[in-house]
Write a structure and sequence with these properties.
Structural class: mainly alpha
Radius of gyration: 18 Å
Number of helices: 2
Helix content: over 70%
Number of strands: 0
Amino acid sequence: MSVFYTPIIPVSAITELKVYLNLYLFSVFMISVRGSNLPDS
Protein backbone atom coordinates (compact mmCIF):
# COMPACT_ATOMS: atom_id res chain seq x y z
CA MET A 1 0.00 0.00 0.00
CA SER A 2 2.73 2.44 0.97
CA VAL A 3 4.65 1.57 -2.19
CA PHE A 4 1.77 2.74 -4.38
CA TYR A 5 0.72 5.56 -2.05
CA THR A 6 4.11 7.24 -1.62
CA PRO A 7 4.59 8.57 -5.19
CA ILE A 8 1.08 10.09 -5.18
CA ILE A 9 1.88 12.58 -2.40
CA PRO A 10 4.69 14.55 -4.11
CA VAL A 11 2.86 14.65 -7.45
CA SER A 12 -0.33 16.08 -5.95
CA ALA A 13 1.66 18.48 -3.80
CA ILE A 14 3.64 19.69 -6.81
CA THR A 15 0.51 20.20 -8.89
CA GLU A 16 -1.17 22.07 -6.02
CA LEU A 17 1.92 24.25 -5.56
CA LYS A 18 1.92 25.02 -9.28
CA VAL A 19 -1.75 26.01 -9.17
CA TYR A 20 -1.27 28.21 -6.09
CA LEU A 21 1.88 29.74 -7.59
CA ASN A 22 0.05 30.55 -10.83
CA LEU A 23 -2.84 32.13 -8.91
CA TYR A 24 -0.39 34.12 -6.77
CA LEU A 25 1.58 35.39 -9.77
CA PHE A 26 -1.65 36.22 -11.60
CA SER A 27 -3.04 38.19 -8.64
CA VAL A 28 0.25 40.05 -8.20
CA PHE A 29 0.32 40.83 -11.94
CA MET A 30 -3.28 42.12 -11.88
CA ILE A 31 -2.58 44.26 -8.80
CA SER A 32 0.53 45.75 -10.39
CA VAL A 33 -1.38 46.48 -13.62
CA ARG A 34 -4.22 48.12 -11.69
CA GLY A 35 -1.77 50.13 -9.59
CA SER A 36 0.07 51.42 -12.67
CA ASN A 37 -3.22 52.32 -14.39
CA LEU A 38 -4.52 54.27 -11.38
CA PRO A 39 -3.90 58.03 -11.63
CA ASP A 40 -1.96 59.68 -8.83
CA SER A 41 -4.37 61.51 -6.55
